[in-house]
Amino acid sequence: MVARLKLGELKDFGILVAWVAVYLTGAWWLTEWRCPRCGKIFANRLWTQRCISCGLSKDEVAARARLKS
Length: 69
What we know:
52% helix
C-alpha cells in the first residue's frame, strides 16, 4: 500500500499517522492521570466519575482546583 503512494500522498499518510499518535497519546493521558487526594490512578475509563481508590469525585477535583487559584 505505501509503495503505491505518490509523494504528496505519502506526506498525507504521514500527517494521518501523526494525528492518530496525538489522539492516542491524549486518550492515554486522560485515563492515566493521578488523583490529587490519594496519588493513585484516578480511573481506567474516561466515563468514571469517582477515583477508584479513594472515591474523590471529578466535581470535588474541580472545586479544589478553583480554591487553589
